[in-house]
């Protein structure tokens, strides 16, 4: 009993002393945020996962850094480590005097932006992957940023189809696409993929399957689904599945077949990557900052900015170095032509 | 007994303080060549501290140590060994999976090329050593497979192997049967004839008188005196130890047994390994009598006690308590039916050492009025009741809020005793109630047990101490290999009991 | 607590080694970020008494930025106290509950579902129903481990770790894409429907929409009192402690050890489940997949219990320390010129890890300390 009291007292005192000591060193007080700074200040609020996630958060950070370098804006990152950080980060970003606050990730749509944006009507917000129409408070100072994934899917499907047409095996032409889970963005990628492959050749067989991985991170599941399709004769595998898809891509590598990456240009994975369906999050972030810098007060919200082939928001990535020169020239020419048609709105691409 | 001109070991004014305690207060001690010098004292008298100083485990605050006339500084057991001091601790420091020889040569092994252990050389040396001192021991036996007495011999040989000529034995008989103790004394005789000197630490008067040439008594850190073997008596030594007259023989009136309160009928019990440790035991304990259950440790007495108290399942048989069948009942129900149990290991089972004394005293009835109501404890009442009990049972060294771990062994046992006796049980089971206690505390425990008997309780006394069994019991049962092999009246001799305990023929069980 | 100081000291060396910055200025920045410096900004302000229109004089500015930081710190401290208690209570029974995280998750799932259901109930009733359900769910979840321990002796460390994973994946299924709990309006995000207004906890400090401090903080403080009372003033606490200190003696004393294993785990889980529901009803309002998969509250609770020595007041201060570390090192509070945002989070983890490590070895520290203070007789002889 005695020992316990002693311990309690000791804990209490030392914490107190520690706090006071640090406070004393701190000199009590924090520099007030400098006001009247001429430079344009923007903030990026990432989602859980950190800056080194090799995906979404990373790409958005790349966009911010480019803006800092090229547009000479002041930029600061607010990293979200847990759900408890989302709202305070948005709020702090606004309070710190950033004129534009870019939130990265769909989860900001459900609560955080709805609650914080109306409290700071003079601050502009943008939400990557956020659908403005899903915000219940309809804030006029928030801009949604959305991507037309079906266009990227269409292009890589077309490229896959071209390759199959030029290299049929016993007259058979089969390609596959794997999604992590049936969510709108993934469905759009794959719907475009199927349509693109058929555009290249009507007779191509296209398998579309979902790995049913809600986490987008279970590589084993995508690998299994991919191997299944390979077993049915597929020789080009598109993985619209985030980190889950890495498992599918490695399966393709093992079987000496083609894989197609997603989101970022995944050609760095090796020459087995035929191409990638790219989604330029970095560009969207840079664009938003550029637009804001050009005219801070005129930066409009209340709608979704769509990224398409036309504005280079989506597209296809580097072709594999393994392709023969003839294949490369042929595919590049045809794909670029189709891309032009898409940009001109001359091709209707299904989104489901 | 060779009386040399100067002592092999002298301690002059050795003093050691611990925070709040003066453990050794200017102690003088000397040891002659070829003698057994007993160090006698109650628990906490400072015997162990003094020997730990000698063995280099503590440093004295004052005083000097001389070995063969030369002042020395002993900083570690290594120094002590180098000076020819060997110590056999109460708890053996042996490695069970290694052989006797390996244990003995440990840390100074004979090797091939400095790397590989030379087993043959080790065995040879140990055999030679054992032969010199007339020890019967197999160097190649594994330590885990030999008995406690043999293990002790290994410890002694270990010291001899390191060329000890001063041997410290810390309570060496605590773990031995009377027969094994006798063998140990023979060995000590051989050693002293060979010129070794032995310091024999004990608190048992009879064995000190049997073996020691001189006896030094310590009390509360002070040396009370040194007496030669000749003319020393148990009474005199006890008075020196405790500082007052001690009743060594328990005074008790004849028993007046009433109805059987505890009936055990053909009980079989399995031990932890699933082997049958109790193979059909039948006995009863009547109101107003003390039944002693004698036996060498490990013959099933612990399992009998656990079965009766509901702490272990019986595999067959019946147990009745005050007429209620309690076979297979929970410990809680058995306690409620009026059982008091002084467990054989007070630290493992009898007390929650991190609980206060008050909390320990409420261990059985914390959930009953007045200690609690509707699950809500009333600490004040618990403390209040504890204060009374601590006073009544003369517990020293702390109040109701002191942690049990802070008390000495004797006082801890008094707490257990207070709790069990204060419940006014119908049946009181006392398993080794005086283990590790000193003379004063033993006297106290014995008196309390007699009082319990006289107030009409049925007392079952389980003990490894024959003297205790003989002086307290009204009837004596002998348990051997899980069976009751004999029953005696209290006037049986120690020898006869000893024979029955080791499986020899005794009078048949009634 | 010495351990925490040492951990900070070594953390400081790490800062120095990796960034060549002055650790003191870094710690100052962290401390400012926790909002605890709010207490030192004494001035004259008027504040409203929560839930009334009255305004009274108050020495602190309740609307400053550091006030907001302090609110965020205390919002995190709230579940940390509860998961700390969850671990500590089991510890007191000699059990190591690693499953705080799973129990928290289960509590959050049940809390959000009950918050979505029964919309329209009077506020307090709805809140109590949702919290009670979550508490019960946490208790049942941990109770599984307790039951396995009590009946077949399965080690609770193994079973609670397994239950963590089960909670994580079942939660991922329920909340994730196309899961039964996913918000039908939000097909593009793995998130549940938000809980009804009636189930949300009142915010007593800060803006309700901007994640102000909710009354769950007081529930956590109340839980500390309950924890202390149960342990020290009830027969249940007595039994749990007896079993924890010496199960054999408890058995001898007539206490059912298996029963207490079960109860201790269940009660332990109840606190963690409550923590999950308080986070949902206090500020999260919905549950998303990232939370289910990345929550660490239960694990930090282990550190809280260890550092707090399983003692009510100790748990409070340990939770405050860890909560403060988490908000203090968040990038919104650390000026990037003082400390790079990428490193700030890692520093928290380093300090947390060091604290846990040193809690384990503080006996060693004390031993070394004593050894240093002891005079060396050997030297005296030589001199």
Write a brief structural summary.
The complex is a heterotrimer of chains A (352), B (510) and C (383). Chain B is an alpha/beta fold and 510 residues long. Helix content of chain B is 32%, strand content 27%.
Mean pLDDT of chain A: 84
The low-pLDDT segments of chain B are: 506-510
Overall average residue pLDDT of chain B? 86
Tell me the domain tally of chain B.
Answer: 3
Count of domain modules of chain A: 2
Q: What's the main sheet of chain A like?
A: 6 strands, parallel
Largest interface: A-C, 60 and 70 residues
CATH superfamily of the largest domain in chain B: P-loop containing nucleotide triphosphate hydrolases
Percentage of residues in strands of chain B: 25-35%
Q: Can you summarize the main beta sheet of chain B?
A: 6 strands, mixed
Q: How would you describe the shape of chain A?
A: elongated
Counting DSSP E segments of at least 2 residues, the number of strands of chain A comes to: 12
Q: What is the CATH superfamily label of the largest domain in chain A?
A: Response regulator
- CATH topology term of the largest domain in chain B: Rossmann fold
Side by side, the strands of the main sheet of chain A go 2-1-3-4-5-11
Run of helices and strands of chain A: HEHEHEHEEHEHEHEHEEHEEH
Q: How much helical structure, as a percent, in the residues of chain A?
A: 40-55%
Query: Low-confidence runs of chain A (pLDDT<50, min 5 residues)?
Result: 19-37
């Amino acid at each position: 009993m005695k020992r316990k009291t002693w311990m309690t007292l000791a804990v209490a005192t030392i914490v107190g002393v520690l706090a006071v000591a640090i406070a004393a060193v701190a000199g009590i007080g924090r520099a007030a945020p400098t006001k009247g700074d001429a430079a344009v200040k923007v903030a990026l609020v990432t989602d859980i996962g950190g800056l080194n996630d090799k995906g979404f958060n990373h790409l958005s950070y790349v966009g911010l850094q480019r803006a800092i370098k090229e547009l000479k804006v002041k930029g600061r990152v607010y990293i979200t480590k847990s759900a408890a950080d989302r709202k305070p980060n948005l709020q702090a970003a606004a309070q710190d005097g950033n004129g534009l606050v870019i939130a990265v990730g769909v989860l900001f749509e459900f609560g955080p932006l709805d609650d914080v944006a109306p409290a700071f009507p003079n601050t502009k917000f943008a939400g990557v992957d956020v659908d403005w129409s899903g915000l219940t408070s309809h804030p006029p100072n928030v801009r949604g940023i959305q991507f037309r994934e079906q266009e990227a899917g269409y292009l890589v499907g077309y490229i896959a189809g071209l390759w199959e047409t030029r290299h049929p095996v016993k007259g058979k032409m089969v390609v596959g696409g794997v999604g992590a889970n049936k969510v709108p963005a993934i469905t759009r990628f794959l719907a475009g993929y199927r349509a693109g492959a058929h555009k290249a050749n009507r007779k191509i067989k296209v398998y579309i399957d979902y790995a049913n991985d809600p986490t987008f991170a279970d590589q084993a599941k995508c690998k299994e689904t991919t191997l299944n399709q390979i077993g049915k004769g597929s020789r080009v595998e598109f993985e619209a599945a985030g980190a889950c898809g890495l498992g599918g891509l490695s399966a393709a590598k093992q079987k000496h077949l083609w894989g197609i990456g997603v989101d970022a240009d995944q050609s760095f994975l090796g020459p087995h990557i035929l191409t990638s369906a790219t989604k330029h999050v970095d560009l969207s972030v840079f664009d938003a900052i550029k637009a804001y810098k050009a005219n801070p007060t005129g930066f409009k919200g209340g709608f979704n900015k769509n990224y398409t082939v036309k504005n280079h928001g989506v597209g296809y990535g580097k072709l594999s170095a393994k392709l023969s020169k003839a294949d490369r020239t042929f595919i590049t020419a045809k794909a670029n032509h189709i891309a032009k048609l898409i940009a001109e709105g001359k091709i209707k691409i299904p989104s489901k | 007994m060779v009386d040399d001109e100067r002592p092999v070991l002298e301690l002059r004014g050795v003093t050691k303080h611990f925070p709040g305690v003066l453990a050794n207060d200017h102690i003088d001690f000397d040891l002659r060549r070829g003698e057994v010098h007993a160090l006698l004292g109650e628990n906490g008298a400072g015997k162990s501290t003094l020997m730990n100083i000698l063995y280099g485990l503590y440093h004295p605050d004052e005083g000097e140590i001389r070995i063969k006339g030369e002042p020395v500084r002993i900083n570690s057991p290594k120094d002590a060994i180098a000076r020819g001091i060997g110590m056999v601790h109460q708890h053996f420091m042996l490695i069970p999976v290694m052989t006797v020889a390996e244990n003995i040569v440990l840390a100074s092994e004979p090797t091939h090329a400095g790397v590989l252990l030379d087993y043959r050389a080790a065995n040879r040396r140990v055999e030679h050593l054992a032969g010199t001192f007339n020890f019967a021991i197999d160097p190649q036996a594994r330590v885990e497979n030999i008995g406690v007495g043999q293990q002790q011999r290994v410890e002694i040989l270990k010291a001899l192997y390191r060329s000890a000529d001063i041997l410290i034995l810390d309570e060496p008989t605590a773990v031995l049967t009377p027969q094994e103790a006798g063998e140990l004394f023979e060995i000590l005789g051989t050693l002293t004839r060979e010129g070794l000197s032995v310091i024999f630490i004990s608190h048992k008067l009879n064995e000190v008188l049997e073996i020691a040439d001189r006896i030094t008594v310590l009390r509360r850190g002070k040396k009370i005196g040194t007496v030669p073997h000749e003319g020393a008596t148990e009474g005199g030594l006890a008075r020196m130890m405790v500082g007052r007259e001690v009743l060594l023989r328990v005074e008790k009136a004849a028993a007046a047994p009433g109805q059987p309160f505890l009936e055990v009928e053909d009980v079989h019990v399995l031990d932890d390994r699933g082997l049958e440790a109790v193979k059909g035991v039948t006995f009863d304990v009547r109101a107003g009598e003390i039944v002693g259950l004698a036996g060498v440790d490990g013959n099933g007495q612990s399992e009998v006690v656990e079965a009766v108290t509901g702490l272990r399942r019986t595999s067959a048989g019946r147990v009745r308590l005050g007429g209620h069948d309690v076979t297979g009942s929970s410990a809680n129900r058995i306690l409620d039916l009026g059982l008091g149990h002084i467990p054989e290991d007070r630290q493992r089972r009898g007390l929650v050492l991190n609980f206060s004394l008050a909390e320990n005293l409420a261990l059985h009835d914390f959930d009953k009025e007045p200690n609690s109501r509707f699950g809500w404890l009333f600490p004040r009442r618990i403390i209040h009741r504890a204060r009374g009990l601590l006073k009544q049972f003369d517990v020293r060294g702390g109040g109701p809020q002191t942690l049990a771990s802070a008390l000495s062994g004797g006082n801890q046992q008094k707490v257990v005793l207070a709790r069990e006796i204060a419940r006014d049980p119908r049946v009181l089971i006392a398993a080794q109630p005086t283990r590790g206690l000193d003379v004063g505390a033993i006297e106290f425990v014995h008196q309390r047990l007699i009082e319990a008997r006289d107030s009409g309780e049925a007392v079952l006394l389980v003990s490894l101490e024959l003297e205790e069994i003989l002086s307290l019991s009204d009837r004596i049962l002998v348990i051997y290999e899980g069976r009751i092999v004999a029953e005696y009246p209290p006037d049986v001799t120690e020898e006869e009991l000893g024979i029955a305990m080791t499986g020899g023929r005794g009078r048949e069980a009634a | 607590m010495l351990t925490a100081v040492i951990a900070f000291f070594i953390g400081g060396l790490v800062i120095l080694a990796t960034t060549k910055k002055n650790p003191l200025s870094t710690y100052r920045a962290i401390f400012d970020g926790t909002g605890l410096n709010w207490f030192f900004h004494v001035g004259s302000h008027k504040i409203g008494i929560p839930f009334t229109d009255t305004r009274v004089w108050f020495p602190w500015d309740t609307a400053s930025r550091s006030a907001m930081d302090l609110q965020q710190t205390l919002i995190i401290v709230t579940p940390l106290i509860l998961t700390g208690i969850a671990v500590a209570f089991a510890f007191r029974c000699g059990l190591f509950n690693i499953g705080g995280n799973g129990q928290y998750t289960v509590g959050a799932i049940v809390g959000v579902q009950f918050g979505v259901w029964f919309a329209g109930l009077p506020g307090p009733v709805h809140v109590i129903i949702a919290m009670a359900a979550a508490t019960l769910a946490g208790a049942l979840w941990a109770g599984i481990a307790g039951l396995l321990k009590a009946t077949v002796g399965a080690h609770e460390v193994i079973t609670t770790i397994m239950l963590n994973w089960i909670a994580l994946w079942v939660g991922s299924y329920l909340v994730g894409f196309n899961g039964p709990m996913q918000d039908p309006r939000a097909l593009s995000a793995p998130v549940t429907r938000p809980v009804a207004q009636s189930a949300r906890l009142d915010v007593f400090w800060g803006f309700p929409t901007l994640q102000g401090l909710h009354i769950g903080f007081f529930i956590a403080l109340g839980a500390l009192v309950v924890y202390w009372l149960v342990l020290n003033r009830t027969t249940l606490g007595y039994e749990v402690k007896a079993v924890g200190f010496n199960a054999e003696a408890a058995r001898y004393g007539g206490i059912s050890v298996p029963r207490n294993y079960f109860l201790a785990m269940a009660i332990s889980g109840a606190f963690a489940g409550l923590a999950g529901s308080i986070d949902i009803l206090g500020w999260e309002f919905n549950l998303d997949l990232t939370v289910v998969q990345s929550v660490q509250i239960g694990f930090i609770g282990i550190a809280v219990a260890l550092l707090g020595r399983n003692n009510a007041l100790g748990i409070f201060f340990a939770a405050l320390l860890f909560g403060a570390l988490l908000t203090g090192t968040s990038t919104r509070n650390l000026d990037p010129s003082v400390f790079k945002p990428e490193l700030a989070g890692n520093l928290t983890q380093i300090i947390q890890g060091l604290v846990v490590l040193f809690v384990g070895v503080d006996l060693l520290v004390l031993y070394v300390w004593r050894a240093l203070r002891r005079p060396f007789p050997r030297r005296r002889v030589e001199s």
